[in-house]
Amino acid sequence: MFIDINNIDPYSFVSPSAYDTAWLAMVPDSHQPFEPMFKDCLNWVLNNQTEQGFWGDHRDGHGRPTIESIPETLACLIALKRWNSGKPQVEKGLAFLHANVKKLLEENYDSYPRWFAIVFPAMVELSRIVGLEILFPDTSRGAMNEIFFQRQQIIETEELVDDKHYYPPLLSYLEALPSSYDINREDIIRNLSDDGSLFQSPSATARAFMATGNEKCLANLQSLVQRCANGVPPRYPMDEDLIKLCIVNQLQRLGLAEHFIKEIEEVLEQVYRWSKDWGLSDMGFGREKTTYCYFATAASATLPPNSDARSIIAKGATLITVADDFYDEKGSLIELKNLTNAVKRWDDKGLEGHSKTIFDALDNLVKEVAVKHIQLQGGSDITSDLKDIWYETFASWLIETKRCKSGSIPSMHEYLETGMTSIATHTLVLMSSCLLNPSLPIHKLRPPQYETITKLLMLLSRLLNDTQSYQREQLVDGKTNFVLLYKRENPGVDIDESIGYVREILARKEKELLEHALMDGSGSDLPRACKNLHLACLKTFQMFFNSSNRYDSNSDHEILQDIQKAIYLPLGVDQPTKPKSNNNPIVVSYDHDHLQHSRSSKKKNHQTRRVSAYWLLNRSSSFKFHNSTKISFVAQRPPLSISSNNGYKNMVVPPKFRLSFV
User: Fold this and answer.
1) Is residue 167 left, alpha or beta, with left meaning phi > 0 and alpha meaning psi from -120 to 50?
2) Other residues' Cβ atoms within 10 Å of the Cβ of residue 205
3) What SUPFAM superfamilies does its record include (predicted)?
4) Which end of the chain is more exposed for a tag (fewer CB within 10 A), N or C?
């Protein structure tokens, strides 16, 4: 069997999003406003309803639809109603909603995710605007109150674009924001990516085009439909190399790798290309971990969805692994001094062999980051700042090598002072953070004046590594580390007690890092996306070193098993407690810092919140609760209308959520 993966469009392996496809189906033709612009998307909606009546592929382990199916189904019904098409599908979809909404809402009571709280209310409002009569059981009153209240809290507390606290930002839900939210044409255009998308969201981009008529938006949508004829994905554009890697990994998991050896080799060849082009994969010594670096980055750095940052992390990690091994194993002291000095003056004069290969790859990587930073962010050239961080890292490797070769044993303090830098996590995180949006402020790049969260990451990464690598370093490399130094300075302590002491430090410092990453007022003014990247880096180190040294394992099985869990296998979630009474709903503790309020404090504020939620739903008479067993949502307010002169301003907009493509 032969399939040339290189000639297959990676998007053909990505599951379509019914929600986003429906949104493109709603876009009217510029020249014939009573016809859809993307008829293939409308046809997809017509032809992809399930037998049960819903849209989308979201099912639980028993094949039953999950809560994600509600907004997707509503969006598809709205698209059909918009063009007076598919009457049988509409009737079947409404029947599904009437039969299943109550159950699905109650199953998720007190645990509605942020995207659902934004998306679902907007879909309900848009449904009534286009004339769909959605009937909800009266017993769902408590759940509806809760969701609309949560939506109102989000709208009132979040900024339109606020990457410092929330990702994705509110503007990426453009199609779902209520009419009360003040958005102008300039806000939308200012936040468009170079590719014409609005935060890579097809649904938000579709709404952006309807609101502005922007040609870049239109080009993006046309490219998307042409590329993804069989339903559009939840994000566009996507990292195509990552898609191919996932295909290869999936073939291996299914036991089909032997039938696709040639294809797997071709894909991995693409992954290795940077490493091969610059000679890093052909050094002939040390650890070849290119694949590990790419897979680990893909598994952990999912927020934000930025392929440039992810690629830079993977390349940087590959380079660091090779260079670190050169300092530990292969290079003579003279070679290492010459390489370190070359990095200091950033000049390869006098270098040859492995030293020149490492320097040339490093120079290429720094230039790539600096150029991308100017392209994405504009402003100052960060080349000099990046060089300083890399020199600091190379200098720390040289210090450790000198100690090892001379037999000098540092104190615990001296060891950490160097070891926190030599682990090089800050090098990766700060460099790649320059490609985020918003970007890391340039003054945060200057060593050693790093943020507390960065220093905590450096410490945690070093100690995690040391708890699992002390045997290799002591027996093979002749080096010391923090576990061994603590045992040496405390003669009555055995190795297990020394490891236990380090783990106590890890527990305390991990809590501090989480506080800096997740809590406001922690003293860090880094953008939210940058904080998330710190967390992703910590997660990667925990994956490699929490229970064993899987980075240096001779077998790929252990680490690939972890990565498969991170990418493919869904988390198990306990079913939330159902409300005892719909007239007395359980109160949600809404706190993006993940701080848990006590049950008593919830009870104290219960009555006020329940009444406020009910008032919120009914204050404009947009919704009428009947004493019968159904609730009918009747339209009385105008839809969301963004000011424009392009003929689309009366087109309404629903909500946004992110779906995995695997």
Assistant:
1) beta
2) 33
3) Terpenoid cyclases/Protein prenyltransferases, Terpenoid synthases
4) N
- 52: tokens are 């049960």
Residue 364 has a CB neighbour count (10 Å cut-off) of 15
Sheet holding 135-137, edge to edge: 135-137, 630-633, 623-625
Q: Which of 649, 588, 658 is CA-nearest to residue 169? A: 658
d(CA 66, CA 114): 16
Which residue has tokens 């430090």? 505
pTM of the model: 0.51
Distance CA(211)–CA(199), nearest Å, equals: 16
Beta strands in 43-180 (DSSP E): 135-137
Q: Where do runs of H (alpha helix) occur along 407-451? A: 412-422, 425-433
Q: Using one digit for the tens of pLDDT, what is the confidence trace for 348-382?
A: 999 999 999 999 999 999 999 999 999 887 778 99
DSSP letter assigned to residue 28 = B
For residue 52, the tally of other CB atoms under 10 A from its CB is 17
The strand pairing partners of 624, in sequence order, are: 632
pLDDT exceeds 50 at position 647? no
- How is 325-372 classified by DSSP, letter by letter? HIIIII--HHHHHHHHHHHHHT--TT--HHHHHHHHHHHHHHHHHHHH
Q: Phi and psi of 424, rounded to 5°?
A: 70, 15
Query: What is the number of other CB atoms lying within 10 angstroms of the CB of residue 342?
Result: 22
Q: Which residues, 6 or more positions from 357, have their beta carbon under 8 angstroms from its beta carbon? A: 278, 279, 280, 283
Find how far residue 647's CA is from the centre of its chain.
Answer: 35
Question: In terms of residues, how long is the chain?
Answer: 662
Average pLDDT over every residue of 201-220: 95
CA 169 to CA 184: how far, in whole Å? 16
Q: Which residue has the tokens 């339903």?
A: 231
For 14-234+619-633, the fitting CATH number among 1.10.290.10, 1.50.10.160, 3.10.310.30, 3.40.50.720 is: 1.50.10.160
Q: Which of 37-41, 233-237, 424-428, 582-586 has the lowest mean pLDDT?
A: 582-586
- Cβ atoms of 46 and 85 within 8 Å: the answer is yes
Whole-angstrom distance, CA of residue 73 vs CA of residue 19: 8
What's residue 618's pLDDT? 32
